Amino acid sequence: MRPDDRAADALRPVRFEMGANPYAEGSCLAVFGHTRVLCAASVEETVPPWLRGQGRGWVTGEYAMLPRATHQRTRREVSAGKPSGRTQEIQRLIGRSLRAVTDLRALGERQIIVDCDVIQADGGTRTAAITGAWLALKQACGWLVEEKVLKADPVTGRIAAISAGIVDGEARLDLEYEEDRVAEADANFVLTPEGGVVEVQATAEDEPISQTEFDQLFALARRGVGALCEMQEKALGG
């Protein structure tokens, strides 16, 4: 049995609260069970120096976890003077995922930064961040069109992300922390609703996982992402 008695192929209760940050051009509070991530997209009329004069924009992400997002207080990374390797890796993952479905030339010479702040963590913070970040990005681009800054929405597709893992020999979707910490294998999938693969991160703990097991995880993730994308559409009013 899972800690919350879910079926192996079931998502945690998921909720997207659009406009959670009224000051941002786009924002979303992504809730996956007890995991809560606030995603806020900011439009800046500038690009990084290495992109100036190229006629295209940039989309990137930043990720942080509040000190009491976890059971014990975690030291703020600013106190250490730099983000941890884990934080940098997740930030790059968020940025790559969003750029995979954004026409940077259509965005023009401006950038959108999506800040993903973990308010409460119970597993799957990076996948919740990516799924919420897409919604915040989509809302920000809609704002650019409404304000007549852009003629068309530069977001070319939809993405969502979800975890899956092998726990007690069983393939399970959307691991919470108690499952993630004892999993024999776990993976994070960033996919499109059509089945396109943006990124897969998979790790085995004690021994390699088989092709059959990986295929089971991938199948679970595809169904999970399909359900999440339907929820995204509803959150946007579709």
Automatic annotation (TrEMBL):
It is an enzyme of class 2 (transferase). Gene3D superfamilies: GHMP Kinase, N-terminal domain. Keywords: Nucleotidyltransferase, RNA-binding, rRNA processing, Transferase, tRNA processing, tRNA-binding. PANTHER family: EXOSOME COMPLEX COMPONENT, EXOSOME COMPLEX COMPONENT RRP41. Belongs to the RNase PH family. Phosphorolytic 3'-5' exoribonuclease that plays an important role in tRNA 3'-end maturation. Removes nucleotide residues following the 3'-CCA terminus of tRNAs; can also add nucleotides to the ends of RNA molecules by using nucleoside diphosphates as substrates, but this may not be physiologically important. Probably plays a role in initiation of 16S rRNA degradation (leading to ribosome degradation) during starvation. This is Ribonuclease PH. The lineage of its organism: Bacteria, Pseudomonadati, Pseudomonadota, Alphaproteobacteria, Maricaulales.
